[in-house]
Automatic annotation (TrEMBL):
It holds the Pfam family Sdh_cyt. The keyword Ribonucleoprotein does not apply. It comes from Microbacterium immunditiarum. InterPro entries: SQR/QFR_C/D, SuccDH_FuR_B_TM-su. The keyword Amino-acid biosynthesis does not apply. GO terms for cellular component: membrane. GO terms for molecular function: metal ion binding. The chain crosses the membrane at residues 34-57, 77-101, 113-136. CDD domains: SQR_TypeA_SdhD_like. This is Succinate dehydrogenase / fumarate reductase membrane anchor subunit. Keywords: Heme, Iron, Membrane, Metal-binding, Transmembrane, Transmembrane helix. It is found in: Membrane.
């Protein structure tokens, strides 16, 4: 007999699931769990590739300026690399926060509002970030001090 049972204190049963699982259709929690593992592995590759290119190649951190970013965003490869990293990271983070909200918020209405707010914020940031990456125009901020290759490209 444990010390808690000897004193007459019982450990409460774990909470039951909020909504009963449907016999038909997919299991959202299972797919969320799978997504977290798969996106986590892919994010490690994307983030370390991003850090290696930005910090180790060329002039390192001293070479990162407007021209460097403009040069990266001129390449469809780097545009898609950064957009994929953005999408995966935001969905991964929002799904993790959704799990925390589901675990700790007990009031159904509050939980629903918080989960909706998470997904709306993530969706807004995904749309905004994707627009920035694909509509980036380095010629808008062109000044006389800009890099020579940028002046030639925008002329």
């Amino acid at each position: 007999m444990s010390a808690g049972q000897a004193q007459g204190v019982a450990i409460a049963d774990p909470r039951t699931p909020i909504a009963p699982r449907s016999k038909r259709g997919g299991n959202l929690e299972k797919w969320g769990w799978i997504y977290m593992r798969a996106s986590g592995v892919l994010l490690i590759v994307l983030i370390f590739g991003h850090l290696f290119v930005n910090l180790m190649l060329g002039d390192g951190i001293h070479g990162i300026d407007f021209g460097f970013v403009a040069g990266k965003f001129a390449s469809p490869f780097w545009q898609w690399w950064d957009v994929l990293m953005l999408w995966l990271a935001l969905i991964h983070g929002a799904n993790g926060m959704r799990t925390i909200v589901n675990d700790y918020v007990t009031h159904d209405g509050t939980r629903r509002v918080l989960v909706w707010a998470l997904w709306l914020a993530a969706g807004f940031l995904i749309v905004l970030g994707t627009l920035v990456v694909f509509t980036f125009d380095p010629c808008l901020g062109l000044t006389d001090q800009s890099a020579q290759w940028l002046q030639e490209r925008c002329a």
